Amino acid sequence: MNEIKTKIKNFLSPYFGTREIKDDEDIFAAGFVNSMFAMQLVLFIEQEFQISIENEDLEFDNFRTIEAMTRLVEAKTTVLAN
Predict the structure, then answer these.
(1) What does each C-alpha distance from 52 to 47, 58, 62, 70, 76 come to in angstroms?
(2) Averaged pLDDT, 36-42
(3) CA torsion 72→25→41→44, rounded to 10°?
(4) Which residues contact 27 (CB under 8 A, 6 or more apart)?
(5) Among candidates 69, 11, 6, 73, which has minimal Cα distance to 40?
(6) Who's near 47: CB < 8 A, 6+ residues apart?
(7) Which of 8, 53, 66, 75 could be disulfide-bonded to 23 (CB atoms 3.0-4.6 Å)?
(8) How far apart are CA 81 and CA 63, in angstroms?
(9) Coil, helix or strand for 41?
């Protein structure tokens, strides 16, 4: 598992109790995310990975799964590296 996925999963795990979150599981459809938690998630990603989530990035599809969040972080950090 790559480092980004591990960090995101570690952040999410306390909020999901004993349930293990799969990388492709839709956390919104599972009913674990409300608007307040979504904001916490965005702040976590910005702070942990030192990136800015722009308005155009605030699409549900970018935050539905661990895989989607990982792709977003990878895309944002790749842009910063170039």
Answers:
(1) 9, 11, 14, 14, 8
(2) 92
(3) -60
(4) 12, 21, 33, 63, 64, 65
(5) 11
(6) none
(7) 66
(8) 22
(9) helix
Q: Which two tokens stand for residue 54?
A: 């722009």
Place of tokens 């979504």: 38
Taken as a whole, the chain contains a residue count of 82
Measured in whole angstroms, the distance separating CA 30 from the mean position of its chain's CA atoms is 15
Position with higher pLDDT, 82 vs 24: 24
Amino acid making up residue 2: N
Widest CA span of the chain, in angstroms? Answer: 40
